[in-house]
Amino acid sequence: MTRKSAPGRAGAFALAFAAPATPAAAHATFKGIGTFYNYMFHPFSVPAHMMVLIAVGLMLGQQRRRIGGLGLRAVAAGLGVGLSFDAAAGNETLPETSLLVVAALLGAAVSLGRSAPSVLAMLGAGLAGLVVGLDSAPGIANKYTSALAYAGLVFGVMWIVTIVSGYTVDLTKNWQSIGKRVVGSWIVAASLLVLTLSLHPPAKQSIAAVQSNALHDQ
């Protein structure tokens, strides 16, 4: 088996990530686990959502503890507003570029390695919840099933942000701070790369060739 270079692997991943997604791929479901858990794991099926949530979790983990707690409330408030607007608009899908721009901005804040001003931290947290909510309303007619879906979705989003921020808030040693900044820089780089590819998408033949090569090397 031939060994591909790191840039080659990064390029293959970027092309696969930037390939146009079908609606089913953008909001994938997990069969057989029930409505609550299905929507709890929904953010894991949308890479752009995960990038936003990890970035905002890291950003809140860099703040003073009381600000981090208020930031979680800001994420929840933004998520609630976003879900409400998305449901009222007929469950329209938010353009992925909006999610990637927010992920890049939050990742840049993390890469600075500093505690942001309280107002900016709160705005960033609220914006993260808002854009994820605007792209996540379940759109289920049955009231009971819809309630389970919303509960699972909110729990899943807040669980991710809480875990990331909670685990990183005490990582204050120099090498740990550098690691957080590196992750923030990766989020910025990945977001900008996918944004660039979405503005100038490669030919379908190129995507197919890269995916075929990746499968062959496995």
**Number of strand segments:** 0
| Count of structural domains | 1
Proportion in β-strands: under 5%
Largest sheet, strands/sense/barrel: none
Describe this structure in words.
The structure is a single chain. This protein is mainly alpha-helical and 218 residues long. It has one domain. The protein is built from ten helices and no strands. 37% of the residues are buried.
Could you give a short description of this structure?
The chain contains ten helices and no strands. With 218 residues, the chain is an all-alpha fold. It has one domain.
Can you give keywords for this protein?
218 residues; mainly alpha; 10 helices; 73% helix; disordered N terminus
List the helices and strands and how they pair.
Blueprint: H1 6-18, H2 23-26, H3 35-40, H4 47-61, H5 65-88, H6 96-111, H7 118-133, H8 143-168, H9 174-199, H10 204-217
Helix pairs in contact: 1-9, 1-10, 4-6, 4-7, 4-8, 4-9, 5-7, 5-8, 6-7, 6-9
